[in-house]
Amino acid sequence: MSLKSRSKKTPPQSNSEEPQSDNAPLFERPAPASSRQSAENSERNCENRHSTGPESLSGGSHLSNSHARSHSSPVPPIDGSAASSSAIAQLLLKFDSLEISSLEASSLKASSLADFSDALPPLIQPLLTLISDLVYVYDRVAHRLRLINDDQMAAVLGDCLEGLQSPSIAALSARVHSGDWPRVQTYLAQMLGESSDEHEVEFRLRQSNGEWRWLRSRDRLLSRTPDGLPWQRLGLLTDITHQKQTDSTAQPTSLVEQQMALVSKQATHFARMLSQSLDLKDILNTAVDQVLQIFQADRVLIYRLFENGTGSIIVDAIAEGCPPIAGHPPPESIFPIADRPTSSAGWVYSLDNLEAESLSEHSRSVLRRLGVRAMLVVPMMQQDTLWGWLVVHQCLSDRTWQKWETDLITQLAGQLDLAIAQSELYQQVQRLNVDLERQIQARTAELRLASNFEATLKRITDKVRDSLDEDQILQTAVQELAIATEISCCNAALYDLEEGTSTVRYEYTTTVSPYQGRTADLAAFPEIYGPLLNGQSLQFCSLVPNPVRGRVSMLATPIMDDQGVLGDLWMINHAFYAFGEQDLRMAQQVANQCAIALRQARLFQAAQAQVRELEKLNQLKDDFLSTVSHELRTPMSNIKMAIQMLELILRQAGILDSTTELEPNRVNRYFKILREESQREINLINDLLDLSRLDAGADALHLSSINLAGWLIPLLRPFEERARNHQQSLQIRLDAANLPPLITDLAKLERVVTELLTNACKYTPAGGEIWIEVKNLEDGGQAQEEQEEGSRKNEERRTKNETLAYPSAPIFQIRVTNTGTEIPLIERDRIFEKFYRIPNNDPWKYGGTGLGLALVKKLVMCLQGTLELDCADGQVQFTVTLPLQPE
């Protein structure tokens, strides 16, 4: 038979339960000592029955074994610390439900539930004396909560139950903190219900001295009724006040930092939102909307205080459910502060509870009428003067304002002050702009005239400067001036100071009779031409009608420069027209531009005359040289033939071959001079004749196909010997395999290469290098790119003597480069002139006629190529670019 079958007391069925009243007793005091003694006797009897063996407990073997182990094992040592007490309490709650149910069933042998603690096994009873928690058992059938270790009641609950004979839920709710009571109600509902889960709640209980004690209640199901419904729950009530105080002292640092970070973040965001506009209305609307959102308030407004002591709400933001403030309430209705003028930056007024604050009944009634229950007010300052207030209202509930909130509203007000100052400064600038615009509009007419004046003057100047013909200059000036000033007539005259006359060279007229071509005697009108010759303008009207024009109004301006008066410019209109200052300025400026253009035209004409004279002289020189060359060529040919015959005779006589006697050596030397100088003269004559033919375009091309490598190498052998004698290095760079056959005038090309190599050898000092490079280019485009690249690198140093558009056919280049010398920049433009030689630039003192490079230039052009000169880094390079086949 099990313990349950032997028990005379069984819990009633769950349907017999009655709802518990809030005033029903919540705790049962422990039973008196007599009852405890009876329970002890019952326990001993129970132990005797337990000792008879496991067969006496049907289905209770697990309990018997557990008890046996408990009696045979010593109680574990407990140090009494808070950690150990908490561990023991957790061990008590986690005790196996079957064992506790069995214990509970056995305890029913006692006279009442009051003996439950005495019926606990020996392992549990010592633990109850050591833990600091208050242990209780709640019977949901009897609706009673029994304290097991009542000696811990004062330690856990304090004096909160003093004066209460029978504590009830209603009495307990009066002592629980209002903010915690909803959680306690939820906990009680779970504990009183049929849930079998574990539950926990933390709440504050007020002591008799007004202090609050933090408690934690935890419970779990202890037993069930025969029909399986929850019956008893075992719970622990723990004092956690010290833990809460420790947590609260550890949190402020991080909490303050978080609040400071939040304040900084909100202030930065607020400033960024305000900076999006400079309009005061937009700024204030944005401000109240942001403050309403940040503080989650019911109403935010900005109250503007005027100089006369009155004020008005200029903008507000209202949350849903909060009534607006109508009209223009006086400043006293915003907040009840008598010394409002003493408001300064950083000052904040806060109201947490309208009914609890010490306010006058008048102020309280005013704020109550506005629906205010809590509020924040911060002043808004401009230049140390109170501008208004930023007000935050809480209308639906009271509100305790935290320090970080007052700090935040202060920072937001500071940001708003800056935004308002910037907006007012912007408005001030706008007003100044409006005033300036009025001033500008007042002078619009003058500026328009000045603008037309400048545009007309520029147009006339551009047209006048575009011509170098005197008549065209005067025609343009007169016509443009008459059209711009809308007068009836305008003319220009030029003076002949030697003859003392003024002749009208051009006239533009619409109504009056023309005067163009008429000549006036300067001496006949001293009252007019006297001031004009002295550089003065004059305006007058004809008193006596002119026989041709009648009565007219005239403005005369001299055309003059720093060298004197060149003529005059006349503006003529009807008799009643008065020329203004603007007309006078226009006429003077046009006259000055005419003087400059006329002087330039005359200088150009003089220069052109000199150019024509020089061309004539140059042509005469060329004709003379051509004639002389033709005339000298025949005698020099005869002289050369005579020298050759004389050399033959002297060699036959043995005079030129003798080296033993002094006289024959002199003959050899003199004969060599005669032969070389005569050849030099013949070369000079040939060069002059070649240049004449090339200039006249009478030298046709004689094309033939040649192999560049096979032709060039033998051509260089004489120059190799010459370079060795001068201690120079001569190199050739060519890729013979990639050089195609060349179709050109062989004689002209050979003359070009010979002249360039001769020039290089002549001007390269000892130890210098000379190299010739032949390069094939696939097409003209590639050559063009190379030429442009070279131009970019040597833009400041290069002189291009001819520019020729490259054909699409293949081309090649010949480059002759020598080191150790460089042509001065001022000499590069002249080296291709006839008979020009660079002074003091011949290290070997060869001399020459200065025709070599001039002839090379002409020959290259005849071959349809280009010749370029590059000088840089102590090198001189000539580049000849030719087509593989001329067109």
Question: In words, what does this structure look like?
Answer:
This protein is of the alpha+beta class. 45% of the residues lie in helices and 20% in strands. The protein contains 23 helices and 25 strands. A hairpin with a 5-residue loop joins strand 5 and strand 6. Helix 11 runs antiparallel to helix 12 and helix 16 runs antiparallel to helix 18 (581-653).
Radius of gyration: 62 Å
Shape: elongated
Q: How many β strands by DSSP?
A: 25
Global mean pLDDT: 75
Q: Biggest sheet, open or closed, and with what strands and sense?
A: 6 strands, mixed
Helix % is 40-55%
Strand coverage percent: 15-25%
- Enumerate the strands of the largest sheet in spatial order, edge to edge or round the barrel: 1-3-2-6-5-4
Secondary structure category: alpha+beta
Enumerate how many helices there are, as a single number. Answer: 23
Poorly predicted segments? 1-10, 12-84, 94-115, 796-807
N-to-C CA distance: 135 Å
